[in-house]
Every structure is written in C-alpha cells, then in structure tokens.
Amino acid sequence: MAKSTVTQISDDLDGSKDATEVSFAYNGTEYTIDLSRKNRTAFEKVLKPYTEAGTKVSRRNSARRLSSGGSGRQDLAAIRTWAAQQGIEVSDRGRISKDVIDRYDAAL
Fold first, then answer.
1. For 36-92, how does the pLDDT look when each residue is reduced to its tens digit (9 = 90+)?
2. Is the pLDDT reported for residue 24 higher than 70?
3. CA atoms of 41 and 47, how far apart (whole Å)
C-alpha cells in the first residue's frame, strides 16, 4: 500500500490555503509568517515606502551588528597594558569601557 503526504500551508492571518513563507526583520529581530497571495500583496504594499527609502543591509553586516561582540578592535591587549601602566583598573577579560578606550586613543 502506497502513502502520500500532502502538506498544506495556511495563511497565518486568515487561514486561507496556498500560503507561502515571508521573512522580514524589524528592530533587530527576524520573523517569518505564512501569507496568501492577497495578504502578501497587502504586506508588500504597506512596506513599499519604507523599503524604497531605506538602505538594504547585507546579511554579513547585519549578523555582525546583531552579535554581542565587543568593539571589534585588535589592540585590546595593548589597551589593557596601557591602562595598567596608568593605574586604571581594567579586567583581564571582557569589555573595556568606552572611556578607557577614548583615553588610550587620546594618549597615542
């Protein structure tokens, strides 16, 4: 006996059939929603003025911006050494305050 499985995707707003997944991001959070053709058209119409006026960001840049990484500087060890020589308390690991980084940059 043969079996076939049919997956029917329904619109998340009104339950209508033949929906497709739509992905979008807002305020650093990514979302997906299943929308019918009618609701997808309405969604795109609402977003159009914002997407036309906005700047497209590549995934690589958005992932970097969303990460919890630090300042991205390569000279953190040098900043820690300099701070210790100046008598400024800085932890051996973790984030260095902007104030300490600014003082280091000014001293160079």
1. 999 999 999 999 999 999 988 876 654 544 444 555 677 888 888 899 999 998 888
2. yes
3. 10
Residue among 44, 98, 34 at smallest CA distance from 72: 98
Structure tokens at 44: 């795109």
Distance CA(88)–CA(81), nearest Å, equals 10
pLDDT at 72: 62
Q: Which amino acid does the sequence have at 90?
A: V
**What is the pLDDT, as a whole number, of residue 71?**
53
Structure tokens at 77: 């060890």
Identify the structural domains of the chain with CATH numbers, from first to last: 20-65 (3.30.60), 76-107 (no CATH)
Tell whether the torsion through CA atoms of 89, 90, 92 and 94 is positive or negative: positive
> Could you give the angle at the alpha carbon of 63 between the alpha carbons of 9 and 70, nearest 5°?
150
The CA distance from 100 to 79, in Å, is 8
